[in-house]
Each structure stands twice: as structure tokens, then as C-alpha cells.
Design goal:
653 residues, 35% strand, single chain, 16-stranded mixed beta sheet, alpha/beta, 2 domains, Pectate Lyase C-like
Length: 653
């Protein structure tokens, strides 16, 4: 299936085909969608139901591509109008509806008054594309685009606000800001409700194969508090439901500044240059210097910023997707039944705070800090009953060698999980992949195949003060090149093996293992430089601390194993100590003992018979015994040896 399958035939009106969907309220509302014509010529629903997952994937990927094209087209048109000046620029100050082969878009430019647009403004200017329904809710029946410098506030001071974003098999709507500001503001008693809406079923759109309504901020700012958002998003992170994504455009592109604003910006740049003393701008800025003139700077790419607070998000493809962001705040939220991940911090999301947020029932992970994220703090959060991991922190580099895109080979890190809970997730409680200076502290992990897993060459990892209960295999596992890890003050209850290390180097101090059924602590493979000190190990199994399968020096001291019941058989105990070096030294010792024994026996039996001092023959002559030969005994010719009495001078010898 190719992209051409989703393109509409071009006509005198730019190929735009509108399809009127009759609402249950009796209103005929035309919807503009990216696949209206394709839907009109599509197979019957029964045939569509037989489409396989591969067909659905191709279709969704094509729709995401079309959404990118639509946004770029609008951005290009706006830039062209602003550069032309004159009447078109003045006309742009009024909201317009842009039509293209990818759908109708209601564009909100910066208002003449400078104030943000409100729900009342949308009703006034939106016409058939934003209409109030008899039940008091509002239907958004087209794409909404908040231009750079414009603002939109979705709130209702007089009561609850419910916005239904049209989303059917043939069309869907969206709210996208490009450098603008979007604020969704409800109250604790009257939250703003936003959901997809299928007019045929009179309910939320639960099918993602044909696309689905979504909200996205490209650069600029998105703030949401006291909202209930449900059943948004499809396929990608940027169209996944609620997305905050950075933009590659310069921060001052497409902005029309007054003379005073330009002078203020110039003064700020000069002040920054004086403070830095280097004549440069911010990180990533480009310096442009005229011959004989002063230097100016083009700011680096914009990062999106914003906050999501005290909201409930349910049934989205991605609960929250954040990339290319700085200082994003996610606090006090509840995210339920996401189709992929609950919270995904994607590339170049940095300095973010995720606090007091619960993710339950996601098909993927609860919380994900993917590659190229830095300095993200996850505090007092809960990941429960998710299909894969509760928390995943990935600090691996974007590339392992030369790549077509020239990605960096540096690792990422400085992120942490603190005071959080991972309960009964499908795979691991918390997983750390590569990276530097990642930490998991004062958290609780309940259930799962393993509790905390660190792998793929992570370095300088801190795992401390955590409690792990009821894991199937290992409570804490470090493997595959982990170096300089520190495990301190953790408690592991009920796993087969409390702490497991394979080809990893770590310091284990003050940890407690209770109820292990195989090993308290196990080392496998390269373990040189590891330390096991002052740990308390109880349970029953073949060994409290097992190093039989490792090589390299493991220092063990001060560990309390009084509560450990050794169930190893005699043969296992022999194998435990029957290491090559032990056998070699035992052989050397036995050889020495055997040699001494045989040498002593020969000397004792040489002349004096059994019991003779082995060095008797080496005594001085005057101290030796005197023997006399006397006649008699055995016949006439016989002789007998008799020992006379000792001479007085020989007494005391």
C-alpha cells in the first residue's frame, strides 16, 4: 500500500473532498480529513475488518506522514505571507481556514489585541468547524493551528468545558500549535474534558488504524491543569495523544518584532556577551559578523516547554510524549490504559521533573526516559500493572559507530527514580540501560520477573535504600558490562537470588537479603574489583555468597550469614572448593607432608631401630652410648652385646 492510496483526486477546489456526517443532534457538520476520498471508495466495513496488522501499520504511518506535510505546508504559507508584507500581512491578522489535500485547518494568527483566543472566540470565528452542541459540549470538526506568537486558552469560567474532537474512519481533527501558546485550564471541581468523538457511535473513537484526533505543541508552550483527556492519538509519539515536541526553526523565525523589541533584544545580547566575555551567544547559537560591524546571533533551535498537572489521561496511544523540551513539569497526574507507553520522555528532553504521577495499565512501559534524555527526575511516582517495565531509563548513545546522520557516540545520564513504586508490572520493575550516573533510590518494587535490572555497560550507577519484594528470579541484577555500581542499604525479600551480578563490577555494602531460595548474592563471569561487605543474608539454598562461577578478585568481609541454611550436597561442597588453584596448592602441601614422613621413617630405622632419635648419630662421641662385647650367651663361640651402666659424667644426657 503506497502513499498515493491516500491522496484525493485533484479538482477545481484543490482536490478537497468534504463529507457531511450527520450528528445525532440533527446538525450536518462537514468534516475535513486526510482520507475522505479514500474512505468513500473503500471496501465495505466487513472487508475492512479483515485487514491485517501490517495493513493497519502502513495506513497509520502514511497518515502520520500526511500530518507532517500539512503542518509544513501551513508553516510555509505563513512564512511566505509575512515575508511579502503589505495587505496579505494585514489580512493574516484575522483567523483563516486553510484548505489542502490533507484537510481543512482553522489557523489562529497572533491576535490584533495581543490577547489569547478563547472558547468564545472559537465559537465566533469557527462557524461550522467549532460548534456548540445541545448538550453543552463543543465539537471541533477541523484541524486547529495556533501560529507562532498566538495564544489559545481552553477554559470556561462559568462552568465545566467539554470539547469533542471529531474522529471517524474518514477524518479526524487536531489541535497543533507551532511556536504558539496553548493553555488548557480547568478546576478541581470542574475539569476541562477533551476526547475524540465518533459521531456514528456517539462515543469516543477507539479505533486507531484510520487515525485519531490528537493534541500537539511544536515549540512554544503547552500548559494543562485539571483536565480529563481520553482516547486521543495514534501510531507515533508526535501524534500519540498529548505531545510536546521541539522545533528545528530558529527561535526568532516567523516573528514580527517592533523596533523597540528589536532594540531590547540587541541590548540583551550585548549584555550576555559582556557577561560571558567571549562574544558568543547561547549553546548552539550561530554568530554572524559584518565586516567592520558588530556581531549578532541566531539562537539555537527552539525547545518546547510547559507543564501537565493534576490531570487524568486515559486510553491515549501515548499518555504523554515529550521530546526536544527543557524544564517540562509533569505533576499530580493519573494516566490509565495507554496503548503504548504511559509517559515517554524522548530524545533531547532535559531538566524535566515528573512527580506524583501514576501510570496504570499501559501495554508498554509505565515511564520511559529514552536515549538522549538528561537530568530527568522521577519522584514519588507509581507504575502499576503495565505490560512491560514499570520504569525504563535508557542512557545509551544514539549510535555505536559512524552513522549516516552523524549521531553522537556519547552516553547520557544524570537521571533518577526516587521514592517511587513499581508494582506487578509484566517484565521488570525498573530497568537501566547504559548511560552514566543513573540512580534508583528509596523506591519500592513489588512483583515482576526481576526487580531492578542494570545492563548494557551502565557506569557509575547508584542503587540504594530500595525495598524489593516477590520477584520471580532476581531482586537486583547487574549484567553485561556494568561498572562502578554501588548497591547500599537495599532490602530484597523472597526472590530466588537476592542480588545477581554477571560480568559486572560493583560494591555491595549493607544490603539485606531475606527468604532467598537459591543464593543470597551470586557472581558470574568477570567480577574483579567487586566488594561484598557488611551484608545480612538469610534464607536457604546452596550458598549465601556464590563466587564459584566468577573469575577475578571479589573481596568479602563482615557479612552476616547466620540466618542462611546451606542445602548444598557433599558433592556440591566438594565442587565449591575444588577450584584449579585450590587443587594445585593442596597437591603441593600433600607432597611436602609425604616427603617429610618418608624421610623421618628412614632415619628412625637406620641404626637404632624404631624409636631412635633421627639425629642420634650426629651427637658428640663422648655423649653416645657405650656397648661392651662379652662372651657367653649362644654357645662357646657366641657373644652378646650388653649395655653397661652409664658413666657418671654421662648422666643427664
Amino acid at each position: 500500500m503506497s502513499r498515493s492510496d491516500y491522496r484525493r483526486p485533484r479538482g477545481r477546489h484543490g482536490g478537497m473532498i468534504m463529507r457531511a456526517l450527520t450528528l445525532g443532534t440533527g446538525l450536518a457538520v462537514p468534516l475535513a480529513g486526510p482520507v475522505a476520498a479514500a474512505h468513500a471508495q473503500a471496501a465495505p466495513p466487513a472487508a475492512h475488518a479483515k485487514a491485517g496488522p501490517a495493513d493497519d501499520a502502513v495506513r497509520q504511518a502514511a497518515l502520520v506522514d500526511q500530518e507532517d506535510q500539512r503542518i509544513m505546508q501551513i508553516r510555509s504559507v505563513l512564512a511566505a505571507i509575512m515575508q511579502s508584507g503589505g495587505a496579505p500581512t494585514a489580512a493574516l491578522k484575522q483567523p483563516k481556514v486553510f484548505g489542502s489535500s490533507h484537510g481543512k485547518t482553522l489557523v489562529l494568527p497572533p491576535s490584533v489585541s495581543g490577547h489569547p483566543y478563547t472558547v468564545a472566540d472559537l465559537v465566533r470565528i469557527g462557524g461550522k468547524y467549532f460548534r456548540k452542541l445541545p448538550d453543552g459540549s463543543f465539537l471541533l470538526a477541523a484541524h486547529l493551528f495556533v501560529a507562532d506568537g498566538a495564544g489559545l486558552v481552553l477554559s470556561n469560567p462559568s462552568g465545566p468545558l467539554h470539547i469533542r474532537m471529531a474522529s471517524t474512519a474518514s477524518a479526524f481533527s487536531s489541535i497543533v500549535s507551532f511556536g504558539g501558546s496553548v493553555r488548557i485550564e480547568g478546576t478541581a471541581r470542574g475539569p476541562v474534558r477533551i476526547s475524540s468523538w465518533d459521531v456514528r457511535t456517539r462515543g469516543p473513537d477507539t479505533q486507531v488504524a484510520d487515525g485519531r484526533a490528537y493534541i500537539r505543541a511544536v515549540g512554544g508552550e503547552l500548559k494543562m491543569k485539571h483536565a480529563q483527556v481520553s482516547h486521543l492519538g495514534f501510531w507515533s509519539g508526535r501524534t500519540g495523544g498529548i505531545a510536546l515536541t521541539g522545533t528545528e526553526r530558529p527561535a526568532n523565525a516567523a516573528k514580527r518584532l517592533t523596533k523597540e523589541q528589536r532594540n531590547q533584544a540587541k541590548r540583551r545580547r550585548l549584555e550576555q556577551n559582556r557577561q560571558r566575555g567571549s562574544g558568543g551567544g547561547g549553546p548552539g547559537d550561530i554568530q554572524i559578523e559584518e565586516p567592520g560591524g558588530t556581531a549578532t546571533h541566531v539562537p539555537a533551535a527552539d525547545l518546547v516547554t510547559g507543564s501537565i498537572e493534576n490531570s487524568v489521561i486515559s486510553g491515549d496511544a501515548y499518555g504523554l510524549f515529550v521530546s526536544g523540551s527543557n524544564q517540562t513539569q509533569i505533576k499530580g497526574n493519573r494516566i490509565v490504559n495507554s496503548l503504548v507507553h504511559g509517559v515517554l520522555m524522548h530524545r533531547f528532553a532535559k531538566n524535566a521533573t515528573i512527580a506524583d504521577t501514576t501510570v496504570t495499565g499501559s501495554r508498554g512501559d509505565g515511564f520511559v526516559l529514552s536515549r538522549a534524555t538528561e537530568k530527568v527526575r522521577v519522584t514519588d511516582c507509581v507504575a502499576e500493572r503495565n505490560g512491560h517495565n514499570g520504569f525504563t531509563l535508557n542512557g545509551q548513545p544514539l549510535a555505536k559507530g559512524p552513522s549516516a546522520s552523524g549521531e553522537s557516540l556519547e552516553s547520557f545520564g544524570d537521571s533518577s527514580v526516587n521514592g517511587s513504586v513499581a508494582r506487578n508490572n509484566g517484565h521488570y520493575g525498573i530497568e537501566l540501560l547504559g548511560g552514566e550516573r543513573l540512580s534508583v533510590q528509596n523506591s519500592r518494587v513489588i512483583g515482576g520477573d526481576m526487580g531492578i535490572v542494570v545492563r548494557n555497560g551502565a557506569t557509575d550507577v547508584q542503587i540504594s535504600g530500595n525495598r524489593l519484594e516477590g520477584q520471580v528470579r532476581q531482586g537486583i541484577a547487574l549484567r553485561d558490562g556494568v561498572r562502578d555500581a554501588r548497591l547500599a542499604g537495599n532490602t530484597v525479600v523472597g526472590a530466588r537470588t537476592g542480588i545477581y551480578l554477571r560480568n559486572a563490577n560493583a560494591s555491595l555494602v549493607g544490603n539485606v537479603v531475606q527468604g532467598a531460595t537459591e543464593h543470597g548474592i551470586t557472581f558470574r563471569g568477570a567480577a574483579d574489583g567487586s566488594t561484598v561487605r557488611n551484608n545480612t543474608l538469610s534464607g536457604s539454598g546452596t550458598s549465601a555468597v556464590s563466587t564459584s562461577g566468577s573469575h577475578g578478585r571479589v573481596r568479602k568481609e563482615g557479612n552476616d550469614t547466620k540466618g542462611w541454611h546451606d542445602t548444598a550436597s557433599l558433592w556440591m561442597k566438594v565442587q565449591r572448593y575444588a577450584k584449579p588453584m585450590n587443587l594445585i596448592w593442596a597437591g603441593v602441601f600433600m607432597l611436602v607432608v609425604l616427603t617429610m614422613t618418608r624421610s623421618g621413617g628412614r632415619r628412625g630405622q637406620g641404626r637404632g631401630g624404631r624409636g631412635t632419635h633421627p639425629y642420634a648419630l650426629q651427637r658428640p662421641l663422648e655423649q653416645r652410648r657405650v656397648w661392651h662385647l662379652r662372651r657367653g650367651g649362644a654357645g662357646a663361640t657366641g657373644a652378646a652385646l650388653t649395655q653397661p651402666k652409664r658413666r657418671p659424667e654421662a648422666e643427664g644426657i
